[in-house]
Each structure stands twice: as structure tokens, then as C-alpha cells.
Design a protein that fits this description.
Helices cover about 35% and strands about 20% of the residues. It contains seven helices and eight strands. A five-stranded antiparallel beta sheet has the order 3-2-1-4-5. A three-stranded antiparallel beta sheet has the order 7-6-8, with no helix packed on it.
């Protein structure tokens, strides 16, 4: 069955000598892996490997076959042409880091329009902006809405936040209750959109500390989540 779908590249892996396995998040069917045969062999095919850089937004035609773990693409073209995401060294560091996180956390092989729209619009915003130092922090925090563990904001006035329950508390309950600078940063980020990022002023040390807390939050709520291998390099480049 021929299916047309938008897709965001999550990762790619060389397979044999001339093939690629590309994992995408699609608008029609969630996470899908594609086998691209011979794409590394010819000059013409190699040119198309540019399409499969992390977080590239594509328009795909696939020959879908049920109960097949690897699908095949019959046609592919760029859906959104980025201007700076892959050429700006800081943005490309964000892209590599977030693509690794998304590859880890996105598992569902089913349609989720809200999540796809969030990813699509977020990366377009990143591509167009010049002040994006806090982008990855708000992106990850708002991603938890779609993963099911966004902080409970109805009690946001309370002076502690429990990373394990995702709720604000009047007093610390256990090791997971925080009240430090990260709590202040969390409250600044909650409820804002990307256009309000400039209102949150963080230095590199604060940014790195909050990212460490966010990743721990992911670990607590996603049993198989592991810290990205690119984290060390990302911190070196970005901070």
C-alpha cells in the first residue's frame, strides 16, 4: 500500500556497505524505520543522504507492508528547507543532542498529530531564531506534556517540587524534593512558549544544572531512558 506522509528524521545507521537504516517520526504512523538500499553506492544516491540528517523534515512516499519491521521509501523530498539548523555549530549541537533523546523516548507506532505538530513547529522556530540558548530546555520540558509527565501546575505556588511525582509540595517528602535554583528555573519555564524564552535569563552553569535535572526527571518517568551519549560533547560545545 502506497502511503504519503510527513516525517522527521530521528537517526540513521549504516547497514552493510551501501545501505542505510533510517528511523523517522512520521505524521501518519508514528515511529517507522526505513531500509534505504544502495543509497551510499551511487553519486546520485549519495546526494540524497543529505535528506537524512537528524531532525530533517521530509515528505515521503512509502510502500507500506504490514508486519514488516523495515519499510521502503519509493520517493522522498524535503518538506521544510532549513536555513541554519545544520550549518550553525550551536544549533547543530542541539540537533544532535535532541535527536538522540527523541530516538530514545519516541516508541509508539501510531499516529499522534499533537506530538508531530509540536516537533515540526519547534524545529522551524529554532531554525529561524538567533537567540536560542534555552531552546533545548523548554523543548524537553514541553515534550513531557506529550510523554505524560508534565509537572502539575495547579499547586505551582508551593515551595518544593517532587521530581518523582511531578507535583509541587508544601514541604520536602523525600530525596526527590527540590527547592534550589532549579526550582526557580522550572517555574520560569512552566507555561511559556518559545517566543518568551528571552524572559528566562540563565548563565551556562545554571543551564547545565537545569538540563541535568531534566534528564534525571526523564529517567524517573521513563524506565528505559538513558542519558544521551552526546551529553558530554553537547555541554562542551554549548556551554
Amino acid at each position: 500500500m502506497l502511503i504519503k506522509t510527513k516525517a522527521i528524521v530521528l537517526s540513521k545507521l549504516k547497514y552493510r556497505d551501501n545501505d542505510l537504516i533510517v528511523k523517522c517520526y512520521t505524521s501518519q504512523r508514528g515511529v517507522v524505520s526505513y531500509l534505504l538500499r544502495g543509497v551510499l553506492k551511487s553519486t546520485k544516491g549519495s546526494a540524497k543522504t543529505v535528506y537524512f540528517q537528524p531532525l530533517t523534515q521530509l515528505q515521503i512516499e512509502e510502500n507500506y507492508k504490514a508486519n514488516q519491521s523495515l519499510q521502503f521509501i519509493s520517493d522522498v523530498k524535503l518538506h521544510t528547507v532549513y536555513k541554519s539548523v545544520h550549518s550553525n555549530i550551536l544549533k547543530s549541537a542541539i540537533v544532535m543532542f535532541l535527536s538522540e533523546v527523541l530516538t530514545s523516548v519516541l516508541k509508539e507506532e501510531e499516529r499522534n498529530d499533537n506530538l508531530y505538530d509540536y516537533l515540526e513547529t519547534s524545529f522551524i522556530w529554532l531554525d529561524h531564531e538567533v537567540d536560542f540558548a534555552n531552546f533545548h530546555l523548554l523543548f524537553l520540558l514541553n515534550l513531557t506534556k506529550h510523554l505524560g509527565f508534565y509537572p502539575e501546575i495547579s499547586t505551582m505556588a508551593n515551595p518544593y517540587f517532587n521530581l518523582n511525582t511531578g507535583e509541587f509540595e508544601l514541604k520536602p517528602v523525600n530525596f526527590y524534593s527540590i527547592s534550589d535554583e532549579n526550582l526557580t528555573t522550572l517555574k520560569q519555564f512552566l507555561g511559556i512558549n518559545f517566543d518568551a524564552l528571552n524572559s528566562v535569563k540563565l548563565n551556562s552553569k545554571q543551564r547545565q544544572a537545569f538540563l541535568t535535572m531534566l534528564l534525571f526527571y526523564f529517567e524517573l518517568h521513563l524506565g528505559d531512558f538513558k542519558k544521551p551519549k552526546s551529553l558530554t560533547v553537547f555541554n562542551q560545545v554549548f556551554n
